[in-house]
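FIELD: query
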Amino acid sequence: MAERRAGFEAFDCAPGLRLEAHERLSALQFETLDGRLARIEMLIERLERRLWLTVYGVVGVILAQAFRGLLDTVP
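FIELD: result
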């Protein structure tokens, strides 16, 4: 930002530097938040797969018991 206007050299003022630092900090916080949300979504997907696997297992056991009951009644 070394511009020259009307014979004066441009300089960074304290409020401008604070605003710039705040913008960088906000951007970093949003990046961190996006990373955390991505990890949480991945964990939820894994949990959902495990839940469906458990549901299918329980349904399989119930169907197997029903089929076995049918086999026991038919000579």
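FIELD: remark
Helices lie at 14-73.
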